[in-house]
Amino acid sequence: MNRLARSPFVDLPTELVLPILKLAARPNFALIGDGTLNRRDPYSSARALCLVSRDVRRTILPVMLETVFLWECSQVIAFVDALRMQAGYSEQGDHLAFAYANHICRIWVGSICEPCGESFCHLDRCRLSIGPGIDSEILAPVLLAAPSLAFDCKSLYLLHDCTQVASHLDICQGRSEPRWRVNTLTLSGNIDPCLGIRSINQRLPFFSSISHLIFVSPMMTNDVRDDMNFSDTMRTMTYLRAAFTNLQTISIPRPFVRFPVIVELPVDVSEMRAHLVTLPAPPQANQPETLLSMLDQNYRAKTKEAYENMETCSGEGVVWKVGARSRPTSGGYDFLVNWDEAWACGYGQFNGN
What we know:
Elements: H1 14-25, H2 44-50, H3 54-65, E1 67-70, H4 73-92, E2 106-109, E3 114-115, E4 127-128, H5 136-143, E5 148-152, H6 156-172, E6 184-188, H7 193-202, E7 212-216, E8 219-221, H8 228-240, E9 249-253, E10 273-274, E11 276-280, H9 288-308, E12 317-325, E13 332-338, H10 339-345
Parallel strand pairs: 1-2, 2-5, 3-4, 5-6, 6-7, 7-9
Antiparallel strand pairs: 8-13, 9-11, 10-12, 12-13
Helix pairs in contact: 1-2, 1-3, 2-3, 5-6, 7-8, 8-9
């Protein structure tokens, strides 16, 4: 009779086995963004190990939950379903109960369609054709317990809903201030001015807890004259500033990145990086023009200083593709940047979020 192969873990002490399992379960966030044809699942190994035993599951879950990516609506709904199940386990005293919120440090929310019949503002948006599947009352306590949040700007309606739910729940439970731990907020994609207007009008206390605000754009240019990304971000910041009362720093991608001279495409982008410039938050001012002028001066001074000491292969954003761009007077290139990988791996300014 053939015997099953003996596992090498049998002869190892528990204090050695558990760290090995943690290392094997730790998600690999390299090449997780738009830079790959098929975005791979960084949590597959961790989920498989969770099926080994009860003790292994409790060892692996904190590692798996440290950084949570919710790129699509189906993933948000699945995450909410998992939270709903955990609430049931907790009420029943089941051994499967696990406090997700205690272990999540970072959550990235991708472009999530807005439910039909709802509108975050007057602009046209992608809408969900299915019934409501995202329960903000279940999601809010866990989402807002993460010290670092990243949101695609198309999904800010979800953040708005969660902050409103959290404020209402805290008032009902007799607390004067909501219990959220978010101190770093990263906004990706095109900034929607409606966020700033609505935040200022409602004075949502959530935004006053943010100390570090990061703007990232998935596309940058090699032309120093093309300041479109910078200008849009700066103008949006003039609307947002009143809501972020305790803001300390702002990080913004540079409109000009020093990359090697590109003779022809395709080009090897393995050593290319995009940079963030971090500025002290300007004081609140009544006139948007004053804010814009201060941000512009500080940004350009910081950019010039960084440019003189910058290394091509350093920086936060991972460049995954270079595309040609036609201009009336000269040729140029667009650099497509994988910010979610940089955010998850803690590159540069993302370190310690």
